[in-house]
Specification:
Blueprint (H helix, E strand, L loop, with lengths): L4 H22 L5 H10 L4 H20 L9 H5 L4 H17 L4 H8 L5 H20 L19 H27 L9 H17 L4 H8 L12 H18 L22 H17 L3 H17 L3 H24 L3
InterPro entries: DUF6691, Sulf_transp_TsuA/YedE
Membrane topology: Multi-pass membrane protein
Subcellular location: Cell inner membrane
Length: 340
């Protein structure tokens, strides 16, 4: 798969929009592994399920609007090439490690590194190094790229304009919702909607950037093979992490959520312990095996569910079974990790 800097940068802006909006308005961190763990094994809070449903709904919106045809990669096509045993192993490692290590790429990298959290800096460094080694020594052989992964691909101006219009539309929708909720703060009718919208925006950001496709992620992790190395993921650090850092620097002194019914819940722990490091290593092993972490897994599941009603090809059933296998193993790993 070629290097797609424009799509990745624009998709990263949506990742920034969703994570920074959730933090500023609700005081909560957009850590998908923690959200999924809480929804299934914790207190089953409505805001957690709102984000999860938003993540699942992203592919449906992309399909209905026609934007799906312009996204780089084919996540379900890539996942369908992987054996069930490898999917189950990687899912279990990702689930166990993300819960034990208190986060994954969203919570630690996008949100934690942008806040210069010591725990997130250590965790992100650990699971990136481990994932690179895992991808090197236990490679997943997906479809061979037709052209080298570092080959530059710039979409037509019409496609760029479509993406910018989608970003603007999503931002306008969320801003209008925020304004309504702040004006009618006593009303409880739409209080769960911001979580759904931020999950939806994050989901589309993953698809637009190509980060929902394991081939794209594995391309970045293959640092030892320049013919397969795809630097796209590094641009998420620019449009996602850097912009999150700038945003956090502006709001951290306020120390309270914008919505009056929420409270500031940003983690303040700074200790580096065995669970954090061992969990990050385990997560990195699983992530490096397939290039799939909790966020892309949920988006892929939403895509597979959408295809149940829109696609009659054999890919539909194969991909659905594959992603259910990964998700089931991931939840099993999270549950087992809870014992520790």
């Amino acid at each position: 798969m070629p290097f797609t800097p424009v799509q990745t940068l624009l998709g990263g802006l949506l990742l920034h929009l969703s994570t920074s909006s959730l933090l500023e308005d609700t005081g909560r961190v957009f850590g998908i592994s923690g959200i999924l763990d809480g929804a299934v094994f914790g207190n089953h809070e409505k805001w957690q399920w709102g984000i999860i449903i938003g993540l699942l709904a992203g592919p449906t919106l992309s399909y209905v609007t026609g934007f799906q045809a312009y996204y780089p990669g084919n996540a379900l096509g890539s996942i369908a090439q992987i054996g069930l045993g490898r999917l189950g192993l990687a899912g279990a490692l990702v689930g166990f490690g993300s819960r034990l290590g208190s986060g994954c790429t969203s919570g630690h990298m996008l949100c934690g590194v942008s806040r210069l959290s010591p725990r997130s800096l250590v965790a992100t460094t650990t699971f990136f190094i481990t994932a690179v080694l895992s991808a090197k020594f236990f490679p997943t052989n997906l479809s061979d790229p037709v052209i080298p992964a570092h080959t530059l691909e710039i979409p037509p101006l019409s496609t760029i304009a479509l993406f910018i219009s989608l970003i603007a539309g999503l931002r306008f929708t969320y801003t209008a919702l925020r304004r309504y909720l702040l004006t009618n703060s006593a009303s409880t009718s739409f209080r769960s909607t911001p979580y759904f919208i931020t999950g939806l925006i994050f989901s589309i950001g993953l698809s637009m950037s190509g980060m929902s496709d394991p081939v794209k992620v594995l391309g970045f992790l293959r640092l030892f093979d320049l013919n397969q190395f795809d630097p796209s993921l590094a641009l998420i650090m620019l449009s996602g992490v850097l912009f999150n850092g700038i945003h956090y620097a502006k709001i951290k002194q306020i120390g309270k959520a914008r919505f009056p019914w929420e409270k500031w819940q940003v983690p303040t722990r700074k200790d580096i312990n065995f669970k954090l490091v061992f969990g990050s290593v385990t997560f990195g092993l699983g992530w490096g095996l397939l290039g799939i972490c909790p966020g892309p897994a949920l988006v892929a599941f939403g895509d597979a569910l959408t295809r149940l009603f829109t696609d009659d090809s054999s890919l539909r059933d194969t991909a659905l079974l594959d992603i259910i296998t990964f998700l089931g193993a991931m939840l099993g790993g999270m549950g087992f990790s809870g014992m520790f």
